[in-house]
Amino acid sequence: MVMTSHYRRACFAFSVVFIALCAGNSLGASESATSLGGLMYVGTLDHKLLVIDEDKEEVVGEIPLTGIARSTALSADQKQLYVINTQMAIEIVDLASRKVVGTINLASDRSHPRVSTSSRDWLAGGVVDHWSRFSGLAVDPTGHYLYTTLRIVTKDIDQYRLEPPKFVAIDLDKKTIAKTFEFPKGFDQGFGFMATYKVSPDGKLLYVFDTDVVVLDLSNLNIVDRIPLAKPPYPGASPYRLTVTEDPYVDRTTVTSIFMSVDPVVHKGTLGLASLNLVTREVKYSPIGPALPMMGFMLSPDRKRGYSVMYTGAGANRRTEWWVWNLQTHQVIQKEPFESRTTFNFGLSSDGKKLYLYGSGSSLEIFDAETLKSHKLMLLNKDLTTDLITLAR
User: Fold this and answer.
1) Mean pLDDT of the chain
2) Is 357:214 a contact under the CB 8 Å cutoff?
3) Long-range pairs, 61-67, Cβ under 8 A, ≥24
4) What is the largest CA-CA distance in the chain?
5) How far is CA 66 from CA 116, 184, 314, in A?
6) Which of 28, 37, 188, 297 is deepest in the core (most CB within 10 A)?
7) Mean predicted confidence (pLDDT) in 6-16
8) In whole angstroms, how far apart are CA 346 and each of 30, 181, 241, 343?
9) To 10 degrees, the CA torsion angle through 226, 287, 340, 237?
């Protein structure tokens, strides 16, 4: 179903909540990463980036960093990884040579910038997702720029001064801030530190995913379009959300995400998939089933299956299960409980055959994606500080 402007206005009768993932298949990305396929990367507390072989299920290398990695962004060609550390420096890692080939220092003796610090897990009731730090970060598909929002704290003689937020384009070749933009009217405090960004395939437009989707011209940051999304039909309902995260098989023209529409009469939630075409700006969606509390949603490389963690209860009584979704028939085809943790995140291998559970201490547990059974627990002996990054095979 294509969501026209008339249909979007009609959708104000629904409350729709999004968590992040990107769908599609990018042949170019797959070809460029062939030699590095089967490897994944994660930052650690001891100033390193671990290189893990997915097939051998072991650490095969370490890349020393100057700071503690807090967030990562993969280049469009999947050859470099941009790491933001706790010192507010961007370290550029060449994945083939496993070396830091450049550093962009954003801080100085008198000023200390801050990139947006968190995003919300809207399917989990709006709680802060600490694994989505620095959510307002977008990579230019052409490989020239990195876009983000900075808020600078300046140290004067007798006080600290908080500057208004600025939107910046960081030149990855010259390793400096190339452009600084004032935010357009209506965004006095920036796009919101819960917003996520994606650049159009030609590198000319910026899509800002917040309560609405705002389209801006990257030459001057003027608004060229706005895609209104559904508003809460009753007090307490969560707004429509769509968020962008890393996916090695991402289609540069499409952003796809889970949504939850809420019936305004009986307030019954329905879970579904929605996608936005960045070229035509058309929105499509299809329902999957009843909405339940969910932690994450990831697509298999062939886009036929989805994986999520469903939970009930809280604290020591919380029950967690793997759920497998058939995206062609819109059905849950498999469930399997597993021992819960206080905090955790999960990932999917680049070939779609393994599920990873991590983020609770220094362990990485590996599950078979077919049986949903755990078959290996890797003890890394160091706390993990970033998401797992996998490359297309």
Assistant:
1) 76
2) no
3) 61/98, 63/93, 63/98, 63/99, 63/100, 64/100, 65/91, 65/93, 65/100, 66/91, 66/100, 66/103, 67/91
4) 64
5) 21, 36, 38
6) 297
7) 34
8) 22, 36, 21, 11
9) 50
- Work out the angle at residue 312's Cα, subtended by the Cα atoms of residues 308 and 316, and round it to the nearest 5 degrees: 115
- Residue 113's Cβ-count burial label (10 Å; 0-12, 13-18, 19+) is buried
Confidence class for position 343, pLDDT limits 50, 70, 90: confident
- Domain positions in the chain: 2-390
150: number of Cβ within 10 Å: 21
Rg (CA), the chain: 21
Strand partners, 49: 43, 63
Report yes or no: 129 and 144 within 8 Å, Cβ to Cβ.
Answer: no
* Residue 347: closest CA among 36, 17, 21, 18: 21
pLDDT greater than 90 at residue 149:
no
pLDDT at site 63: 97
Query: Can you say whether residue 224 is alpha, beta or left, with left for phi > 0 and alpha for psi between -120 and 50 degrees?
Result: alpha
Give the residue, 35 or 82, on which the prediction is more confident.
Answer: 82
% of the chain at pLDDT higher than 90: 30
pLDDT per residue as tens digits for the range 119-144: 333 333 333 333 333 446 788 888 89
Question: Pick from 29, 74, 148: which is nearest to 389 by CA?
Answer: 74
**What CATH number belongs to 2-390?**
2.130.10.10
CB atoms within 10 A of CB 387: 20
Tokens of 364: 């990485």
CA distance 226 to 282: 12
pLDDT digits (tens, 9 = 90+) for 180-214: 898 888 787 777 656 778 889 899 999 887 767 88
Q: Using the structure block, give the residue that is written with the tokens 């610090």.
A: 117
**What angle (nearest 5°) sits at the alpha carbon of residue 146, between those of residues 141 and 148?**
125
pLDDT reading at 178 higher than 80: yes
Q: Which residues of 60-91 are buried (b: 16+ CB within 10 A; e: fewer)?
A: eeebebebbbbbbbbbbebbbbbbbbeebbbb
User: Tokens representing 164?
Assistant: 């208004």
Q: 3-class SS at 85?
A: strand
DSSP letter at 19 equals: B
